[in-house]
Amino acid sequence: MPQCCAVPMCANKKGGHKFPTEDKNRLKQWLVAIRRDKFTPTKNTLVCKSHFTKDDYQLPKDSVLEKPRPVLKKCAVPSRFPWIDQNSSLHQKKKERHQRRLARNERKISVQVHINNEKREG
């Protein structure tokens, strides 16, 4: 059964990277970065690829493949998250909801002004 990404607000089940449990300093960096510093990952816990930048990957030096698959650098720490990515779908949904709320409030104010004007005239 595929496991979800360990990053809060991410339900991605496609591929990922295991936590660097053998390197305590790097593990701490990952846990702080994903905002789960009290979390204890298992050997199967993953952070999906969408939380890493292109610069976090390198081509393997000893690959014999024509198109080798990039591998995660040893120093890489996840850095792309919905709470900081201004182009994320979560951010976009919040922005759209806020705009709808503003429009709804403007309509309410317009109706109230219209009602008040009718009361004054009548």
Q: What percentage of residues falls in helices of 4 or more residues? A: 25-40%
Structural class: mainly alpha
Unreliable stretches covering 5 or more consecutive residues: none
Major sheet: 2 strands, antiparallel
Helix-strand topology string = EHEEEH
Q: What strand line-up does the widest sheet have?
A: 1-2
GO molecular function: DNA binding; zinc ion binding
InterPro entries: THAP_domain_protein, THAP_Znf
Protein name: (apollo) hypothetical protein
Organism: Parnassius apollo
How would you briefly describe this protein structure?
This protein is mainly alpha-helical and 122 residues long. The chain has two helices and four strands.
Provide structural commentary.
- This protein is mostly helical and 122 residues long.
- The protein has 2 domains: 1-84, no CATH class; 86-122.
- Helices cover 35% and strands 7% of the residues.
- The protein has helices at 24-33, 89-121, and strands at 17-18, 46-47, 57-58, 71-72.
- The strands form 2 sheets. The chain has a two-stranded antiparallel ribbon with strand order 1-2. Strands 3-4 form a two-stranded antiparallel sheet.
- The longest helix has 33 residues, at 89-121.
- It is elongated, with a radius of gyration of 24 Å.
- The termini are far apart.
- The relative contact order is 0.14.
- The model has no long low-confidence stretch (mean pLDDT 85).
